[in-house]
Amino acid sequence: MTALSVATDAPVYDNRSAFAETLIELAERDPRIVAVCNDSVGSSSLTGFKARFADRLINVGIAEQNLVGVGAGLANAGLIPYVCAASPFLTGRALEQIKADVAYSGHNVILCGMSPGMAYGELGPTHHSVEDLSWLRALPGLDLIVPADRRQTAAAVRQAAEHPRPTFIRVGRFPVPDVTPAGSALERGRFQRLREGADVTLIGIGTLVSRTLAAADLLAADGVSARVLNAAYLAPLDVAAIEHAAGETRAIVTAEEGNLAGGLGAAVAAEVVRLDRRRRVPVRMLGLREFAPTGSTAFLLDHFGLTASGLAAAAREALDHD
Fold first, then answer.
1. Would you write out the chain's pLDDT as a tens digit for each of its 322 residues?
2. Are residues 172 and 15 in contact, defined by beta-carbon separation less than 8 angstroms?
3. 91, 108, 268, 322: which has the fewest C-beta neighbours closer than 10 Å?
4. DSSP for 263-319, written as a single string
5. Residues 134 and 211 in one domain
6. Cα-trace Rg, the chain
7. Taking a C-beta distance cutoff of 8 angstroms, is the pair 49, 77 a contact?
8. Which residues, 6+ apart, have CB-to-CB distance to 244 below 8 Å?
9. Is-cis flag, bond preceding 236, omega within 30?
10. Number of domains, the chain
């Protein structure tokens, strides 16, 4: 595998655009595709969908619990509903409905958490969605997909229509560069290996994947060989990839735009702890442990050390203590 890198001046894109374009493309071919939102036509990037399929867009108003319940009813009637809302409100206000009406009931609802992480910047912790993956990962039967770029976002939207099941897609708003190799598949329950490495494994998710690749470049300049994994699927979890990382490299570093309690890092660490003591390696987790201060998304990512240099430093520290 060629070592994948991302140029510092690479163009960046809002993944919501890929989401919107793909949803319209699917709806043109399949009359079962419908969209449901909570008075968020614009912020959910459904303006084009509404213009094209006004009779297939259901706006329930600012009522997220009803939003999920309506989605479950539509799925039960044989439709394929994409239920869209800002991720903090979709997952926070309607967690009970996601648990009972979607995950437990097994309804084929595609929950679309828009603008997750700290994408709302200065609007602060009330609008940040850094807990969503932690509490949704606790629900059995719910797939969690966190696309790293626009290509993977489009693949996730298509996959959800082709194989409907209870699913949550974290649709990023903070602009990111393309990192997914052309022609690569989004495989259910599998991390995507973007770069080979023998010393340390870096596992990024969502907005942090491009920064993880940049960290690998920094480490390579110091003679450290870093494997890079894109945790596009958080559930089902790619246990095999974690076991291989522990067995084939000397340390693991995870990076997520979310709370460390119950997120990607916690999932990876739990699997490493289950290994035989001789196979365990140091795990360092980068993410949030507290509510964020006020500032732009870029400022907040830097504030919490979710940068290429921050990941590289964590990798060096883990290798020093292996």
1. 557 777 677 899 999 999 999 999 999 999 999 999 999 999 999 999 999 999 999 999 999 999 999 999 999 999 999 999 999 999 999 999 999 999 999 999 999 999 999 999 999 999 999 999 999 999 999 999 999 999 999 999 999 999 999 999 999 999 999 999 988 999 999 999 999 999 999 999 999 999 999 999 999 999 999 999 999 999 999 999 999 999 999 999 999 999 999 999 999 999 999 999 888 999 999 999 999 999 999 999 999 999 999 999 999 999 998 6
2. yes
3. 322
4. SHHHHHHHHHHHS-GGG---EEEEEESS---SS-HHHHHHHTT-SHHHHHHHHHHHH
5. no
6. 19
7. no
8. none
9. yes
10. 2
Are residue 154 and residue 219 in the same domain, yes or no?
A: no
Which residues span the domain enclosing 73? Answer: 15-171
Neighbours of 303 (CB within 10 A): 14
Report the alpha-carbon distance of residue 274 to residue 257 in Å, rounded: 25
Same domain, 237 and 163: no
* Residue 128 DSSP SS3: coil
Pairing mode, strands 200-204 and 33-37: unpaired
Which residue among 171, 201, 227 closes a domain? 171
Which CATH number characterizes residue 77's domain? 3.40.50.970
Q: Residue 107: helix, strand or coil by DSSP?
A: coil
Q: Are residues 152 and 237 in the same domain?
A: no
Q: How many residues does the chain have?
A: 322
C-alpha closest to that of 174 among 261, 301, 280: 301
Q: What is the pLDDT of residue 140?
A: 97
CB atoms within 10 A of CB 196: 15
Tell me: do 127 and 213 sit in the same domain: no
Taking the model in full, what pTM does it have? Answer: 0.96
Identity of the amino acid at 44: S
